[in-house]
Write a structure and sequence with these properties.
By secondary structure, this protein is an alpha/beta fold. It contains 14 helices and 10 strands. It has a 6-stranded mixed beta sheet with strand order 2-1-5-6-10-9, with helices on both faces.
Amino acid sequence: MRTSVSKVTVTTDHRVGVLVLDGAKALDVGIAAHVFAKRPSMPYEVRVCGERPGRVDGWNGLAYAVSHGLETLTWADTILVPGYRNPADTSTSPEVIEALRIAYARGARIAAISTGAFTLAAAGLLDGRRATTHWHYTHVMQDRYPEIDVDENVLFVDAGQILTSAGAASGIDLCLHLIRRDHGVGLANHVARRLVSAPYRTGGQAQYVPRSIPEPLGDAFANTRAWALEHLRDNLTLAMLARHANVSPRTFSRRFTADTGITPMQWILRARIDHARELLERTDLTVTQIAETTGLGSDTNLRRHFGSIVGTSPTTYRNAFQE
């Protein structure tokens, strides 16, 4: 008599290690630990560690009591290195460098928030790569590590296994981006709502907005972007966006690009693709229906732009992420 055995699929939480170093900034540490904090909706497990268990002195009179040491880097699937004060005057210990190199060699994903990128640079993990850090230190990094392609005009850089972000707030953008990579737009948007954060800012958005852009115009453009997200199905044009912002099309295009790092119509296209991703994850609408709903017009147009931005087809994406 044969006995059939049913297969049981076990879902393992993605393991995140947060490496807190001397001088660590509280906001950077908090972002890394809080975004991935375990809760029913979050398939992650977080461990905060230091070079060794015990007290780690932070910046501005703060200190952290960590329960784990560098062994956490052998456990983690993703390692986050928060920023710290005075990276130009701070040296990374050989033990931390070796632990990061070993983690990288075994395939762990490693990301830095703000000046945490200097630790990755010291370990040689950014050599020959494009990377970023807080705009105040980009020239310092370029001078100290000329083999790194330092980009001072972005919020974060995704180089595959290695990721870097600008100042602390862009650490949230980086973490949301990691969640999008792991589990799709739906969960990332859910986390963004919980954090009361913008659901998606592209990595290419400028991290430092020139002071020549008047503050009231920035507010107007934010309102226009929110309005555009509610009207993606319409045939949006540059003239319509400028009219909503109450400026000329030329002025709107120039200042929008300076603010976000991409042109208004590129932003609209990415917003439409982002909406399409969530519909693919959370509905059973056909590709043609999604193309109409998002304002992309036809399934051919959707497939073409989806492939160029996301790097795969809508059907393949749906099979990977649909709930």
